[in-house]
Every structure is written in C-alpha cells, then in structure tokens.
Amino acid sequence: xxxxxxxxxxxxxxxxxxxxxxxxxxxxxxxxxxxxxxxxxxxxxxxxxxxxxxxxxxxxxxxxxxxxxxxxxxxxxxxxxxxxxxxxxxxxxxxxxxxxxxxxxxxxxxxxxxxxxxxxxxxxxxxxxxxxxxxxxxxxxxxxxxxxxxxxxxxxxxxxxxxxxxxxxxxxxxxxxxxxxxxxxxxxxxxxxxxxxxxxxxxxxxxxxxxxxxxxxxxxxxxxxxxxxxxxxxxxxxxxxxxxxxxxxxxxxxxxxxxxxxxxxxxxxxxxxxxxxxxxxxxxxx
Length: 286
Prior knowledge:
The protein is globular and about 60 Å long. By secondary structure, the protein is an alpha/beta fold. Helices cover 25% and strands 26% of the residues. It has a six-stranded mixed sheet with strand order 1-2-3-6-8-9, covered by helices on one side. A six-stranded mixed sheet has the order 10-11-12-13-14-15.
C-alpha cells in the first residue's frame, strides 16, 4: 500500500503530495511548488527543498514528477526536483492545447513549440503506469482547464483543482478552454470511484467552520457534502452557479508570471544576450 505525505505551501495555498511505494522505495511527487516573490522577481526553492530533503532522508528514488494541469497560481518546481533527484515530468497529453493558447497569448515566437516536448511524458486517458511496484492510472478530468488529469494510485485519487474540500467546492472554469459542463462530467467520473477512495486536493482555502488547512477527503464525503456539486445537484444548476461564481473571481495573483514557466515544465524562458532572464507581461489581454 502506498504512503502519502503532504507538504502545504501557505503562500499559494497549494498541497504537494509525496507518494511512496514502500515495497520498492520508489516515489512520485505531485504538483510541487517553487517559491516566487512577485514584487522582486526572485525565485527560491525552500519549499521544494523540504521535499528533496524528505526523499533523501528516506533513501527513496524519485520516479515521477506529476502535474495535474498547467497551474495559474504558482510556479512549478518540477524542473528543480528533476535536477536534484532525477525522475520524469509527466502531464496529460492535452497540455498541447493549453500551450497553443498561451504561445499566442505571450507571443512566444519560434523558440517555443507547443507539442508537449518540454515534458518527459504525456499521459493518455486511462493510461497505466507504475511507481515502483504500485500501478497507477491517469484519468482525464478536464473542466478547470482542458488538460486537467487525475492520478489514481491504489485507493488514492489526486485531482488537482477539479475538486476542493467539500466545504470549499470546485475549481473555477473561466480559464482558456475551461468548461463547467466538462468539469461536471469529470467530477461525476471521480464520483463513480469506490466510496472509500481517498481524494487528495491541490489547494485549500479553509472552508466555513474549519480552523485548519486540509487536503484529504473521500468520494463518499464529496458526494454527500460538496457545496457545489454534491449528489442531487444537476448539470444545469452547476453550470449556472459556476458561471456566476467565476464572474466574481479575480485573476490569480501570479497567473501571468506562472503560466509562461509552467507551460515549459518549470523551465525558464531563454536568456537574453547578456544572460538575464525575463518574463513577459501582456497588457490589456485578459
């Protein structure tokens, strides 16, 4: 049975999950975070290095660095982890659709190809893979973005931003290619898993009545009490709610910075002639 350890980055409200196959001492990391101070433009690896230290202390071998989607609220530490520990960076194959959109949005030019080649592996829907002796499945769960994917590892489903804790609800659908219809369908796919399936979410914002951050729930809990999509809430009701809710949400603080790194699997844009690295800030396009 796999063992899960979670590292919570409070600056971005992101839960990074370390999945360990104890029988082989192999592991995977899901949705790692690189520190980024937006006002100064400084990157750091304190958060990611806590995971590196844990993997080294347990004498584990990192096989996979798994992204549930292209994140808009933090910069991925996937490349940093790979540089430190090895492993393959994986994401859903529909990432190419997201890259196409943002290649044009950022006017990236010929230096950037939108074929997913920045990643080591692009998962198909239903594709099976292994973490040591543990079999895992990649399940396409679009809606928040077209490239969202849930990783089902034994009785654990890592769903990124598709679902949050039941008292917080579901991810937004107003990013390019997002769809409330698709999100509802994806959630029903997750709800079809066994009731005891453990769900690990990608973020937490502390719902009403809670004092602590949380990131683990179950299919049964979600079906019964998710405030946006519990059993009995139909597609049309969900679409109406999600569109109204999304219209009230502000753009993620780090979106314009994060996406142009994350579509490169955590790699930075090519440096200028003097070796400096720049991110673009498109004006009046959102």
